[in-house]
């Protein structure tokens, strides 16, 4: 088996990467592209592969699993390697076409109104309820996480600019690892790779886990843990409002909110480098989020698209805002009233994009199912079976996980 020299790769990568498209195509670029995706490729070519070709492919696969930034840093990629090329039916439509056809935007919720007493809060609760039902997504302004958000994006950018060897210390193919630097969406199952690198940080028992987080950049632990705490507070506040909006009070709400306080939290710090052929691939494929709510911080480079009314709606970042979406657990808990919708990330050829998703749920051991208050045999029969974290992780590492919709596997009713 051909093994790439990691030290050599590290030495090649001590500088900040130029945009991927800024260099002439090196030989490796041509090779990476040669096996371009074609329907029925294997059937059309029955000749057995030469041993040398197989070794070369293995070497290339190892290179690609080191991530997109590493690939770009090695000397420039002018065309998209075959492993990232989506079948035509899964490619994003060109952005101008997309902009013309959709023209939609996701709702904006002003948290200052939600915090105001009386009629202001009541009106904001109605808007929140409608946003969770109709879109499953909204942008939050007036949230008070602004300063932490700027510092978070800044340290994330500096982390991805570290030499590859520094980032590689946190690489693991194990999807259960609490600290993990990786690439694509689900490395184990992705037939086509995504144009994305990420740092995953599990934040349950924050004080206990922070010492295992990357120690470079030097301020990462401090900035990210402060940001994680802000997100947890925001999650708690939004859950309290959403439970009120959906009509759950008393012990039911108390139990869920206690679960939120002690609940699970995971940060996904994403980097989507500039891509030489962005219309052929995605930064993240259509997927829904595990958990109750996700709080997403994005820089000013757009890319997030949300599925709504059979089209993809681009979420134009409002400066200082956060995007919040309903996750699979909230759809199940609300017995289908709130929607966990598919979203995806497109990439562009000019600018790298950073985003930070904070995924929140109840404690990992908790079984999630529809709230009894929202189920009745006549009008609202139970729509989902109960689930837990172990079932989700099994799903992720199974062949079923290719379909990127855990929620579908939990449905009892289809309408
Ligand atoms: O980058 C984005 O806008 C979305 C990220 C996302 O969907 C995720 O991390 O699950």
UniProtKB/TrEMBL annotation:
Signal peptide: none annotated. GO terms for molecular function: 2-oxoglutarate-dependent dioxygenase activity; metal ion binding. Residues 263-362 form the Fe2OG dioxygenase domain. It comes from the Eukaryota. Gene3D superfamilies: B-lactam Antibiotic, Isopenicillin N Synthase, Chain (2.60.120.330). Keywords: Cytoplasm, Dioxygenase, Iron, Metal-binding, Nucleus, Oxidoreductase. Residues 12-59 are annotated as: Disordered. Involved in the regulation of shoot development and salicylic acid (SA) homeostasis. This is Fe2OG dioxygenase domain-containing protein.
